[in-house]
Design goal:
With 374 residues, the protein is of the alpha/beta class. It folds into three domains: 71 residues; 163 residues, Rossmann fold (3-Layer(aba) Sandwich); 127 residues, N-(1-d-carboxylethyl)-l-norvaline Dehydrogenase, domain 2 (Orthogonal Bundle), CATH 1.10.1040.10. The strands form three sheets. Strands 10-7-6-11-12-13-16-17 form an eight-stranded mixed sheet, with helices on both faces. Strands 3-2-1-4-5 form a five-stranded antiparallel sheet. A hairpin with a 2-residue loop joins strand 14 and strand 15. Helix 7 packs parallel to helix 11. It is globular, with a radius of gyration of 23 Å.
Length: 374
């Protein structure tokens, strides 16, 4: 199947001939391929029965699956839940109408005690205790990696037969853990391109980012179409992908570099853009991820690090920090195990040395250990 967005629906043109008696009324449907899919940038047109379009509620702007002249719309997503109201939870959750934030009584009280602001605008959320949940169509998991086990338990009542789970956690392991708990419910996903900076309940950002997602095996399915339709309707930039594992390893390379350099050296995006010894070490640690990805069968190109940095860093607020740098400033547990920890363990299986990751792992662990001594 192929994934498209409906650009226009019009009456089919039969020229001088009339529609044969008893033949179904047909519509000409113009389609455009979605970024991130094999059909990206392409255009197509099909003749589809008007009755079929009406029954499925297919309209202009909808995301559909195409198989020949047949069009299929995914099961609509109408209800949603969110767990984790940190930077990404606020950034995406504020755009999800009617979303339920999963939080026990104590956590909900902490959230409600201080207004949540996003670029100065108030964000209001509805909270639901884990035990009071009912199945929803979509769950967005936006906790830190250190809170994933608790989140897996807390979303149980919200998972029904058709629930789709999206994780925007950093790293490459959260989907496997979620899928082990809720088999068949997880789409692989990654959040990219945001520079959100959170202090307490106050979030400031310049670049809102987007969510890339897809089936682990790269197939195009009705639920991929449904999630794309929902996120687009919410105003959340998104990209359904047929190469989501590539996208996840690319994001891991970014996190292992920028996040850990910010955490270890206290540097902002502006500082990370400077040509200095810290940046050189950041590039070394990103190269170790590229070599590991290749060994794992994921073809990250050898210059993936410098090409991404050249295009992305200028879009970020120079005085902001990546999330791990913010965690260190706030003395929150970091995600170093999901970054250098994972890279070191997987590299050892392939006999690949990781001197740069070893450095960052030890440096960040030493920073965290200093908090407990103080």
């Amino acid at each position: 199947m192929e994934l498209y967005r409906v650009r226009r629906i019009g009456e089919a043109d039969f020229g001088c001939e009339e529609l044969p008696e008893g033949a179904p009324v047909l519509c000409e449907v113009e389609l455009e391929g979605l970024p991130g899919t094999d059909e990206a940038g392409s255009a197509a047109a099909v003749l589809a029965p008007d009755a079929s379009l009406a029954v499925q509620g297919i309209a202009e702007g909808d995301v559909v699956l195409r198989s020949g002249d047949s069009l299929q719309k995914g099961r609509p997503i109408r209800t949603s839940a969110l767990i984790g109201l940190g930077a990404l939870g606020i950034l995406f959750g504020r755009k999800m109408p009617g979303v339920q934030v999963v939080a026990d009584e104590a956590r909900a009280a902490r959230y409600a005690a201080q207004p949540t602001l996003c670029n100065g605008e108030a964000c209001r959320f509805a909270y639901c205790a884990p035990e009071a949940g009912e199945p929803v169509d979509l769950i967005l998991v936006a906790v830190k990696a250190t809170g994933l086990d608790a989140a897996i338990r807390d979303i149980a009542a919200f998972v029904g037969p058709d629930t789709v789970i999206l994780s925007v956690l950093n790293g490459i392991t959260s989907e496997e853990r979620l899928d082990a708990a809720y088999p068949g419910h997880v789409l692989w996903s990654v959040a990219i391109g945001m520079d959100a900076n959170r202090s307490g309940r106050n979030l400031i950002f310049q670049s809102p980012g987007k969510i890339q997602f897809g089936e682990r095996d790269g197939s195009v399915t009705p639920r991929v179409a449904a999630v794309a339709q929902y996120l687009t309707a919410c105003g959340i930039e998104n990209e359904p992908c047929t190469d989501i594992l590539y996208k996840q390893w690319h994001k891991l390379m970014i996190n292992v570099g920028l996040n850990q350099a910010s955490a270890a050296f206290g540097m902002t995006y502006g500082g990370l853009a400077q040509d200095n010894a810290q940046r050189a070490l950041m590039l070394s640690v990103m190269q170790e991820v590229i070599r590991l990805a290749n060994a794992e069968g994921v073809p990250l190109p050898p210059d993936d690090d410098v090409r991404w940095l050249a295009g992305a860093i200028p879009r970020f607020r120079p005085d902001s920090k990546p999330s791990m740098g913010q965690d260190v400033d706030a003395r929150r547990p970091t995600e170093v195990e999901e970054f250098s920890g994972v890279v070191r363990r997987l590299s050892a299986r392939h006999g690949l040395p990781t001197p740069a990751n070893d450095f960052f792992y030890r440096a960040i662990r030493a920073i965290e250990a200093g908090w407990t001594r103080n």
